[in-house]
């Protein structure tokens, strides 16, 4: 079928897709041209055409700056923690929800675990600040009841990474189960019926049928997660960050905000953003190649 015939036949689908296409063009692709200021000493009054070119000067400064290397280390550590501890939680939660046989109870549980996703990080931050307060927090009341001294969790570098990962798991894990539950719902019931005839229990069915069947979905989401490895999220860190915990808590996104918007180092922070994008691209290409060799599934 020719391109014209396809367009004529499926034109409603193309029309529906236009808002999404325009969104990516306007907010994703056009801004890429602004990355050129990473190679300039950008001046907002002179603009891109009038600002002097400096080549790779900002990239050299980036890797020579001790503070940036510490922040890059924080971002990598938090990214690894998020991948190891947070990524498997929606999978496990979806498998557990799939085992609930009482429909009404299952819907209630699903609603409860989905709800935190609709809270903004400002609200989540406020909730945790209240819970972890050293004077009025519920957690420290429990600690004090056992005879221990209250802990200022948000004022200690040793706890900030745990708080960031834990709050993310609580907020987004329930929402992440939706895709996995949809993948599980698409499994052919005859596979389970055959397994029951062969004497397989629920646990055996889960690991022999459910998990292998949804493995392609898991790999696709894992690759997307790897592509955003350095993009942990500005707001989820910024609401918890303060001068007492920023040694282990500050990441590239919050540093770009502080150096770029507050200190107006536009070219330098654009170079950092470009570096982060290149790293993400390299990671997703490597991950996709390994995935296709091991499982036969990939993004492309």
UniProtKB/TrEMBL annotation:
Pfam families: BPD_transp_1 (PF00528). InterPro entries: MetI-like, MetI-like_sf. Keywords: Membrane, Transmembrane, Transmembrane helix, Transport. It is a multi-pass membrane protein. This is ABC transporter permease subunit. Gene3D superfamilies: MetI-like. PANTHER family: POLYGALACTURONAN_RHAMNOGALACTURONAN TRANSPORT SYSTEM PERMEASE PROTEIN YTEP, PROTEIN LPLB. It is found in: Cell membrane; Membrane. Residues 72-287 form the ABC transmembrane type-1 domain. The chain crosses the membrane at residues 12-30, 76-97, 118-143, 178-197, 209-230, 266-286. Belongs to the binding-protein-dependent transport system permease family. Its main location: membrane.
